[in-house]
Amino acid sequence: MRLAGRRALVTGASRGIGRAIAAAFVREGATVVLASRKQDTLDAVAAELGPRAIPVACHVGRPADLDSLAARAGPVDILVNNAATNIAQGPCLTFTEAQFDKMVEVNLKSVFGLTQRLAPGMCERGRGAILNIASVSGIKPQWESLLYSMTKAALIMMTKSYALELGPRGVRVNAIAPGLIQTQLSEYFWKEGEREAFPYRRQPIRHLGQPEEVAGLAVFLASDEASYVTGAVYTADGGALLL
Prior knowledge:
Elements: E1 7-11, H1 16-27, E2 31-36, H2 39-49, E3 53-57, H3 63-73, E4 78-81, H4 97-125, E5 128-133, H5 146-166, E6 171-178, H6 187-190, H7 193-197, H8 212-222, E7 233-236
Parallel strand pairs: 1-2, 1-4, 2-3, 4-5, 5-6, 6-7
């Protein structure tokens, strides 16, 4: 019960890494506000997780939705910015400005928007933990994924910048950079053909990562066990960056 009495907000909580983190937080005693676009999907997840899971539909790319989400969430001790998209896979010279804008809107502006809305309350209370879900693609560029790599690299720098300024006010800000995790978001890279074969079969830990293998690290960073940790970027990639 490392998070007993804490209130958390997890975006992108209806599936994949976000859902796994929300479930782990509930198991550790937290009350968790689940945010994602579709209310019915969130309701089903909340029914599985129990009464300490609170579903709130929100499109993180819309400022009005972020206002509503922040109001519904109330004062939170933990913010997990997990919601992301990857609508632009392929040769970099084929991408459009519309794709660029959408990737920035969801992968960066939503993190900025929620942090700007919720971190002031954490600072006033002198306590808080913010966790941004980045990617190893923000450290080492991912093939045919210019915009995703770009936004995740920017998210890592955003994490460090917030950590630098908010640390003296009691708020820790860290990032997790997963490698290839078996989620709907990443299925382009693991689902079929040659792409399924190359990403993880040469790395030191030779299995496709699972969302639960990220969630345990999230619990640590959100808990008091990480009280001396801020501005850090933890990889959970099976050693892929060693190659």
